[in-house]
Design a protein that fits this description.
There is one protein chain. The protein is an alpha/beta fold. The chain has 2 domains: about 110 residues, Urease, subunit C, domain 1; about 290 residues, TIM Barrel, CATH 3.20.20. The chain contains 16 helices and 17 strands.
Length: about 425
């Protein structure tokens, strides 16, 4: 496929105009000035040529923290604080989930993700086989982890959830030509005990997995942890348990303290900020600028649609950028190119996908075409500014994963949306009848 005479987002997240980009198999084969590509379009995988004059090519979004099956709970449990939301609405609903429900809920999330330019998600949930199958069927990518909680204090060696995690890792690690990566996940400090945290950290290190964990999402969680663990914050407690001795994603980090930031920076942890979900649940504002200043690596997530209520990374980028300015009182904080990098390249690196997240020769062709001929994208003084602060999901024209077009101009190539919605409706009806 040849994208002819297109504007691209470069490796340093500026723009370059009048470029020919050739995609061959699953990678970007050539980037050259328009008309000067060394690869003829007929050598490309499909031979299709797209006139790029009205488009911007950017790296696809990498959703840094998600719970894809929770599309089933979109709008279910509104107007509640986090604890009431979890314990009176979400947990009872999740207790009735079925394999079919998780499959269709995940597939609905993939349809929404591809429509909005998301090529991969770091996902924490359960029913992993069904989630993985839905993602494989959609053609998208996923870093998927079985959320490990152990509030009952069951001995680590007897936890069925750990056995599930090990089984899935053995069978499905690297499935679909590497599109599926199996991670580890401790749900949170407050839903487990120290033996579980230490055991999971050791096991994950042995298996070479990335860790995914909720950290200091609410002030209640943060302060109660200090009461339980002799003044230690969730970050300090988890670090002591070895959770951050392997590559890790710490979701939320809304209420981290200065000492926590030092730990996160020292351990090389990626913080997945989820601004819209945190605002909706009134959990607070993650101080992204403070993290970045101390060298903490930051990525961007949507959280689940039950607390967001959509998977719009454009909305997340703009919100993150604006909140950084409000938090510091400085309108120059969070340059648009930094926000765009956080939402794309940083997310890919957090997932261990080092050859993704950039428009670069030899990298995976995980890319998005945005229309630049829509009213909200003009004037075009700076297209990166426009992408972060003016673009909407409606501007996504095409989403490609590993060189395959999965969404283009309102049409999906892998997902029957009507069938998916019917599956979701059927599953919800079944679950509600059993509540």
């Amino acid at each position: 496929m040849l994208f002819k005479d297109i504007t691209i987002i470069t490796e340093d997240f500026t723009t370059r105009e009048h470029v020919d980009v050739v995609v061959q198999d699953d990678r970007i084969a050539s980037i050259a000035d328009a008309g000067e590509s060394s690869i003829d379009s007929t050598d490309a995988s499909t031979g299709e040529v797209i006139d790029g004059r009205n488009f911007i090519m950017m790296p696809g979004f990498f959703n840094g923290h998600a719970h894809s099956p929770m599309t089933l709970m979109r709008g279910y449990g509104e107007g509640l604080n986090l604890q009431d939301w979890l314990f009176t609405r979400i947990f009872p609903f999740e207790d009735k989930l079925t394999s079919e429900a998780v499959y269709y809920g995940t597939k609905l999330a993939m349809a929404e993700s591809l429509r909005f330019g998301i090529v991969s998600s770091s996902d924490m949930y359960y029913f992993l086989d069904d989630m993985i199958q839905a993602v494989i069927d959609s053609g998208a990518k996923i870093n998927v982890s079985r959320a490990i909680a152990n509030p009952e204090g069951v001995p680590f060696s007897e936890l069925e959830r750990i056995k599930e995690m090990i089984d899935v890792e053995k069978r499905l690690q690297g499935a679909a030509d590497g599109r599926v990566i199996v991670d580890a996940a401790l749900h949170a400090e407050y839903t487990s005990n120290e033996e579980t945290a230490r055991g999971l950290a050791e096991l994950s290190k042995e298996l070479g997995l990335i860790m995914h964990v909720h950290v200091s999402e609410t002030l209640t969680e943060h302060e109660e942890c200090k009461t339980r663990h002799e003044g230690r914050t969730p970050t300090k407690y988890l670090a002591d348990c070895g959770i951050f001795d392997i590559p890790a994603i710490a979701a939320h980090c809304v209420h981290v303290e200065p000492e926590d930031i030092e730990i996160l920076a020292d351990k090389g942890v990626y913080v997945a900020t989820n601004p819209v979900s945190n605002l909706k649940l009134a959990s607070g504002i993650c101080d992204v600028n403070a993290l970045l200043k101390k060298g903490v690596k930051v990525t961007l997530g949507t959280d689940g649609t039950s607390s967001n209520n959509n998977l719009s990374m454009f909305e997340e980028m703009k919100t993150m950028s604006i909140l950084a300015k409000v938090k510091t009182g400085d309108p120059t904080t969070m340059a648009p190119n930094e926000a765009l990098k956080i939402a794309t390249r940083n997310g890919a690196l957090a997932q261990g996908r080092d050859d993704s997240g950039l428009i670069k020769e030899g990298f995976k062709a995980d890319l998005v075409l945005l229309r630049k001929d829509t009213p909200n994208m003009w004037p075009a003084y700076d297209l990166v500014d426009n992408i972060v602060l003016a673009a909407t999901d409606a501007d996504v024209y095409l989403t490609m994963v590993d060189g395959k077009v999965l969404y283009k101009d309102g049409e999906y190539t892998t997902i029957d949306v009507d069938d998916t919605i019917k599956g979701v409706e059927r599953s919800i009806k079944d679950i509600l009848s059993r509540l």
